[in-house]
Design goal:
Largest sheet: 5 strands, antiparallel
Structural class: alpha+beta
Radius of gyration: 28 Å
Strand order of the largest sheet: 2-1-5-4-3
Distance between the termini: 39 Å
Order of helices and strands: HHHHHHEHEEEEEEHEHEEHHH
Number of strands: 10
Length: 399
């Protein structure tokens, strides 16, 4: 556990340096855009294509100015060029170059450290699209000992769908139940399995869509069965209805309570924003002949014809990218999600979430196995009897 905390410090430190480097890069780009007579753009989290080209030109100019110089130029000896024309700009670029070096060193050291983790050497290292930086995030942010089920990882990464039980109807069992007694029954209960009824003198049975609560009022003979139906409230997020109350000790040493999120936002951002893109980038378009075009590749989303008539098909090299394209294809032909009012962006986000969830299932099985921990089946396998194709073996291809 101590090693995991140290690794987390290293990983977070590397990304802090990267964030600082990007911020400084954006400031430099903005400064030089203004110098060139261009209006500054909006605030950017990443450096855009135009900004990267400007930085490339600036870096070339910096190298030219400092080439062959053993010590950093002094203001009195500085000679600029048409790009870096004054000494202040030179110092600013030097800071950016130094941050690049520190960032590169940090991530290279991280790669060496990860070789001591079996989950990296025996699983993550062999997955196309995952490098030391992303592996470091996964290993340092996840405590596999706490993840009893695959869905535990989904929830921690903010990839599951949050739901609740909403009251459907009440079936009296005995006694005369008054209106005041009915008003005491909560209309909603959180979706926490049997925990949703903890704290009251009641018994409950839960199946996939229905929660049956046998309710008996304290010190009264009346009883009733309350039927709750499962209702989706959307993907786990920062929305008010998804926050929970936590107790803590404030700065004055007194007990207090506040609202907080129920997932790791840093991990979610890296998985859905960085890892997902890495998986998808492993696919590439290749030229094919007429026979290949009409044969193996028949799906419209996996083939295209260029203006010059050249036909190409999408060669998918990652099993998780294949999960993405297969799921997106299903959504495009779904009775609900295939409608015109559902945007391509919405279907893309759904497919990304599905792809990362399949990866987390394989990660769960591999990691728990390496740690000699019990491996639980997914809910739809254990409770509903369904079998997902990709769960037969890690990184398998679904059809």
């Amino acid at each position: 556990m101590k090693e995991s905390k140290s690794l987390k410090t290293i990983v977070r430190g590397a990304y802090d340096i990267q964030k600082l480097r990007i911020q400084m890069g954006n400031r430099i780009v903005g400064n030089f855009k203004a110098k060139l007579g261009q209006e500054p753009g909006h605030t950017e989290k990443e450096i855009d294509a135009e900004g990267k080209q400007i930085l490339a030109n600036i870096r070339a100019a910096y190298k030219k100015i400092t080439d062959g110089v053993t010590t950093f130029p002094r203001q009195t000896t500085f000679v600029g060029d048409e790009v870096i024309s004054d000494y202040t700009e030179l110092c600013l670029i030097a800071q950016y170059i130094d941050l690049e070096k520190y960032e590169d060193q940090h991530f290279r050291r991280l790669g060496a450290i990860l070789n001591g983790y079996p989950i990296f050497t025996k699983f993550l290292k062999g997955i196309k699209g995952i490098g030391p930086a992303m592996a470091g995030v996964i290993i340092s942010e996840i405590d596999i000992h706490k993840a009893r089920y695959p869905s535990s990882l989904w929830r921690y990464a903010g990839l599951d769908v949050v739901g609740e039980w909403q009251i459907d109807h009440i079936e009296p069992i005995s006694g005369n139940i008054t209106k005041e007694m009915l008003e005491a029954i909560p209309e909603r209960r959180p979706l926490e399995g049997d925990k949703c009824v903890v704290g009251e003198k009641i018994t409950a049975s839960v199946d996939y869509q229905t929660l049956r609560v046998e309710y008996q009022w304290n010190d009264r003979p009346e009883s009733a069965v309350v039927i709750y139906k499962f209702t989706h409230t959307g993907g786990r997020s920062r929305r008010k209805e998804h926050l929970i109350d936590v107790k803590y000790i404030d700065k004055n040493g007194k007990p207090a309570e506040r609202k907080t999120i129920t997932f790791n936002p840093f991990l979610k951002t890296k998985l859905t924003g960085v890892l997902a893109s890495s998986f998808l980038r492993t696919s590439k378009w290749e030229d094919v002949d007429k026979e290949q075009w009409e044969g193996e590749f028949g799906r419209d989303d996996m083939r295209r014809e260029k203006p010059n008539g050249q036909r190409q098909v999408l060669l998918i090299q990652s099993p998780y990218a294949r999960e993405y394209y297969n799921y997106r294809w299903r959504l495009q032909h779904h009775v609900k999600y295939g409608q015109e009012d559902v945007s391509d962006g919405h279907r893309h986000n759904m497919a990304v979430r599905f792809m990362i969830k399949r990866f987390l299932v394989d990660l769960y099985k591999a990691w728990r196995g390496l740690e000699d921990l019990p491996i639980a089946p997914e809910y739809h396998e254990a409770k509903l009897g369904h079998v997902h194709e990709a769960t037969k073996e890690p990184c398998s291809l679904s059809t």
